[in-house]
Amino acid sequence: MLDRDLLRQHPDFVRLGIGRKHLDVSLVDTFLAVDGDYRKVRSETSEAQAEMNRISKSIGALMGQGKKDEAEQAKGQTKELKDRVAALETRERELEQQLRDVELQFPNLPHESTPNGKDETENVVIRTWGEPQKFDFEPQAHWDIAERHKLFDLARGAKIAGSGFVLYTGLGAKLQRALFSFMVDFQSTQNGYTEVFPPYISNRASLIGTGNLPKFEDDLYKTTDDLFLIPTAEVPLTNIYRDEILDGADLTIKVAGYSACFRREAGAAGKDTRGLLRVHQFDKIELVKFTKPEDSYDELESLASDAESVLQALGLHYRVIELCAGDLGAKGAKCYDLELWAPGVGRWLEISSCTNFEAYQSRRANIRYRPAQGEKPQFVHILNGSGVAVPRLYAAILESFQQADGSVVVPEALRPYVGVERIG
RNA sequence: GGAGAGGUCGCAUAGUGGUCUAGUGCGCCGCACUCGAAAUGCGGUAAGGGGCAACUCUUCGAGGGUUCGAAUCCCUCCCUCUCCGCCA
Question: pTM (2 decimals)?
């Protein structure tokens, strides 16, 4: 959602921004048309209501004075006005709903520092950390390593739930649990986030707040109660403060939470189907920040380095990509992707997106702060990033630390959690 | 799942059809008194929308209804609490 005043006063600026994302700019004209109608009807309604209130009040006064006849007479004269008010209110409600529908469809505008570009081929590599591992043998893909050591079982996962659901077993299950425990500990103790453990289910209001609804319902698992399994802890974490006014003195607020994530991956059939690269249920640590507008871009930089610090602690080779406007997606203003090198599959794997949404989500979720006592509430800026997603990290660890003898050395930071130095 | 009680402006409460433009207390802010503080007194203290403005509208958990008029009456839903049942 964008600022209404911005749309009214600077529609060309908005068109320019949406154009940079290569999205449909005609929304702006739709908005302006509906908004014009809405405001016209709104003031007509308001006037009619005021008139109605005056008459009602005077009837009340007459009744109080015992002038029953005059009161009855006044009642008789209200019918036409009452119908008019009802008609106007109905029309206003329709337009309000239309306006809301249009507003919810708006993408966010890219920040001025976000580079131009059409798609992922025009993203920019910002920095690279570490070196690709050297092997004096042919490194195996994680699914082969996992099979040898019975770390997870895709066939049985599919039998239990369906394809894309993973059954982790033995030391493989333990490694899975170790990874998210380690990362939650790391983010809360090293990087100063408040640990939270959220519900895995969210309602419509929460999903609208983050921007998953109304557009992306097909990507979500839905329960019979009109509740949804969360696609990411971003949803519950962001909605912690929905419809609240925060104290400016408390910002920046940083929360980190682990959750299972559920994605139907509608339309992704056939892509990355092997191993752990794309699954319907996975684990992820999510980092969310609520900031003052003036702080959000500094906080984006530190958010990215918070996500990176986990990878550094594990000794993995990764790079940071800045997304161009065309690849940014609808919600973001600026975004860094973290990609992990997986030597077995020979590819960079996206394991985190660190995004500044500015006030896009806070407008949808109505999350504000009061800069100082007596001042008007303003929308906070909201940022989030994975810190990080488990399955691709799991895959990269198996592939990066595999040995000639087929074993896998457990990174030192993980050993207290896994309990062994080596798998196999 | 069953029965009951509730949801009011930060908190606590009052309000069962008409100056409720929602009262009072606490908290908070300002002023006065004070060397200063406490106490006390006076004033202020929700959000959103429309309008250049004066002003006005909406919101008493949410939505609908009855009425000239709804915090108040009716219906549906959500949430909280108590008891019972079931249950990791």
Answer: 0.93
Q: Which two tokens stand for residue A58?
A: 């005077």
What is the DSSP pairing of strand A194-196 with strand A201-202? unpaired
Q: CA–CA separation, A2 vs A13, rounded Å?
A: 12
Q: Do residues A170 and A207 touch, judged by C-beta distance below 8 A?
A: no
CA distance A180 to A387: 9
Chain-centre distance for alpha carbon A377: 23
Which nucleotide lies closest to A61 by the C1' atom and the CA atom? B18
A374 CB and strand B closer than 7 A: yes
Distance from chain centroid for Cα A21: 18
Q: pLDDT confidence of A197, banded at 50, 70, 90?
A: very high
pLDDT over 70, % of chain A:
99
Find and list the nucleotides of strand B having atoms within 7 Å of a protein beta carbon: 18-19, 28-29, 47-51, 56-58, 64, 68-69
pLDDT value at residue A375: 81
Residues A197/A338/A303/A209 CA torsion (nearest 10 deg) = -60
Residue A269 has pLDDT above 90, yes or no: no
Here the tokens at position A367 are 């999350």
